[in-house]
Amino acid sequence: MPSPSVWHSLKPSGPNSSQLRQMLERRLRGEPLQYILGTTPFGPLSLLSRPPILIPRPETEDWTLRLANTISPKSSRPLSVLDLCTGSGCIPLLLCHLWPPGSTLAFGVDISEQAIELATDNAARCNIPTRSGADALRNVFVPVLGDLRDTNLLKELEAPFDVVTANPPYVPMQEYVRLPPSVKDYEDPRALLGDMPESPTQNAGLSFYHIIARFLAQKDLLRDGAIVALEVGDRQAGDVEKILHCSAGLRNTEIWTDPWGKQRVVLAHA
Ligand SMILES: C[S@@+](CC[C@H](N)C(=O)[O-])C[C@H]1O[C@@H](n2cnc3c(N)ncnc32)[C@H](O)[C@@H]1O
């Protein structure tokens, strides 16, 4: 049996009691645990979480895992992936991690510089290179700072894409004002609020789906047979299907329900 001093040296290093007290105080003030701990599990990954970037949610984790199992890319025919509103980079990083090496080149676009920094740090943490052409035998994730509304954005990406994913901001204004302080006081409103004044469907949280549909309608953006997967909020799936039909010309759609019984993803096949 080892001596007590050996037990002491075997103890994993963790926060000391004063750090623990500070963490507890932050939690009691309502700060999300993931920001206090600095990490969030997402499938088999452990991703960095820093305010104000949206903490990846279990619903998003669930459909990303399902999407990863639905598509089987091969290194002999690599797939191009575009993740709009990438935040922490959770969606493309999980796909890059799960799919075979050399089968995936993913781009992730976000308007927030802090999000792009976090996505880049997360790629390093997951050992996924962030430069296109880095190594043909590895999956690559390229974070791109950009605004979905910018008509020049496509020039910075390598279209056409086989898979487009997005978890855009979709909370309607009247719901946003009622969100708990642990969300509203810590997470970027740009990551949550789905209403923009110029949108044709004001107050329904659908502004970003109109922007995404216009983006998808651009010539040569989607490869034939491409898959588009858009996360949606409560009771938005039907409207999002219509927006994709009318503004992106994507008529072949289906809805995925999450394990909590909510319609969570609109999937479209080009
Ligand atoms: C709901 S969060 C999703 C983050 C991440 N994909 C996830 O699932 O956890 C939406 C993200 O959209 C970004 N965003 C908001 N407006 C944008 C715009 N006009 N262009 C690009 N990204 C935008 C926000 O900065 C935020 O990171």
TrEMBL record:
Give the keywords, sorted.
Answer: Methyltransferase, S-adenosyl-L-methionine, Transferase
Q: Which Gene Ontology MF annotations are present? A: protein methyltransferase activity
Q: Which GO terms describe its cellular component?
A: mitochondrion
Q: Which domain of life is it from?
A: Eukaryota
Record's signal peptide: none
- Which biological process annotations from GO are given for this protein? methylation
Record domain Release factor glutamine methyltransferase N-terminal: where: 17-38
The record's annotation in InterPro entries points to: HemK-like (IPR004556), N5-glutamine_MTase (IPR050320), PrmC_N (IPR040758), SAM-dependent_MTases_sf (IPR029063)
**Identification of the protein by name:** Release factor glutamine methyltransferase N-terminal domain-containing protein
Which species is the source of this protein? Pisolithus microcarpus 441
